[in-house]
Amino acid sequence: MEVRVIDSAEQFLAIATDWNELLETADAASIFMTWEWNHHWWQHYGKHHSLCIVTVWDDDRLKAILPIYLQQTRVLRIWPTTTARFIGTGGDTSPDYLGPILDPASANLTIPVLVTFVIHQLPNWSILCLSDLDQSSDFYAELDRQFRACGYFHTSELSATIALAALPRTWDDYLASLNGDRRNTIRRTRRKIETQHQGRFYVVTEENQVDDVLGSLIELHHKRWQGNPEGHSFSTPEYIAFHRDVVHAIARHDRIRLYCLEADGKRIAVLYCYRFRNQIFYFQAGFDPDYERLRPGLVLIGYSLEHAIGEGNDVYDFLRGDHGYKTQWGKSRRETHAFTAFRPGAQTTLHLLQTKGISRLKGHLKRIFPALARNRNAHGSNAGKQHGA
């Protein structure tokens, strides 16, 4: 097997077909692992970073992809440090369900190759930050095993707890799974919009229609969140341009679902969702606050769930975001985790000083510098036992 690093825009463009063909065969895959999502993210957010996609080939057949890049930052605004992280992370948009793309027939061989390459041959990184991983995956286990073996300090932390609804065969079956008050609220609010405000629900999936709906989504989102000191999505040129490009690209593969609700002849709510492997992924929403009394969010989510069931989907996934309404619709949970590893060095120590504080830094030093801990033990010191995540 041969490891090749994709480090130029031309190489990234050239690998598109091989990438998506491999993704089609992979056991673990998500919309956020498609070539389209990664490539467009890199176009809009990668300007000041270094592309470093690790690929594994066997007889010129692509067998594995680890889509990462190198991000340059400064610790305490002075000392440069390099973080290796997944493409799609580190900007102002937040994907879920990340990881390597693997040919299942050779994954037992390619996973160790990927991890070994990252540890021993990927140049210049001080921190490895791989977020939104499945902690039960073979890749996660191999990360933990190899980083323990080489003595690098590493941590495992929760990335997100995600609400999702397992979809039954019919909308009535789904309603029956809710309590009586919830069912009555869904029916009552829908009936009010339909009978008193000429309510209309529809779905946009075609590429030639997405710009108009995406424009409405952005306008509604801004209108709803204007004046919010915590900020909102669609607030930077990069974010808007990236999502316009992604929506167009994945619409060509029938993977976009823009759910729309009209009342009194105007569009009052939009849900921006993806469809991938018979699952719907709820990414973003916009609602007109002038119609808040009609609860357009609740009504439109209900319509979208009914449509998702009618399409034959298995899951409606609400993605990350700690919002109570998500857990009212989706009773099941998924977790993703972040694996972070640190190479011994001054930049790593300073990074932990900045992010963890002095009190926690002392506890990390022996694990970041395992040689120091071993030397102290060899001289009869009382150094604590080294451990990882």
Plain-language structure description:
- The C terminus is likely disordered.
- The chain is of the alpha+beta class and 389 residues long.
- Helix 4 packs parallel to helix 5 and helix 7 crosses helix 10.
- The strands form 2 sheets. The chain has an 11-stranded mixed β-sheet, with helices on both faces. A 4-stranded antiparallel β-sheet has the order 1-3-4-7, with helices on both faces.
- The chain is elongated.
Give a quick set of tags describing it.
389 residues; alpha+beta; Aminopeptidase; 2 domains; eleven-stranded mixed β-sheet; four-stranded antiparallel β-sheet; 14 helices; 41% helix; 27% strand; disordered C terminus
Layout of secondary structure:
Blueprint: E1 2-6, H1 9-14, H2 16-25, H3 35-45, E2 50-51, E3 53-58, E4 61-66, E5 68-75, E6 79-86, E7 101-102, H4 107-120, E8 127-133, H5 138-150, E9 153-166, H6 171-176, H7 180-196, E10 200-204, H8 210-225, H9 237-251, E11 256-263, E12 266-276, E13 279-287, H10 296-310, E14 315-317, H11 324-329, E15 332-342, H12 346-356, H13 358-368, H14 370-378
Parallel strand pairs: 6-8, 13-14
Antiparallel strand pairs: 1-3, 2-5, 3-4, 4-7, 5-6, 8-15, 9-14, 9-15, 10-11, 11-12, 12-13
Helix pairs in contact: 3-9, 4-5, 7-10, 8-9, 12-13, 13-14
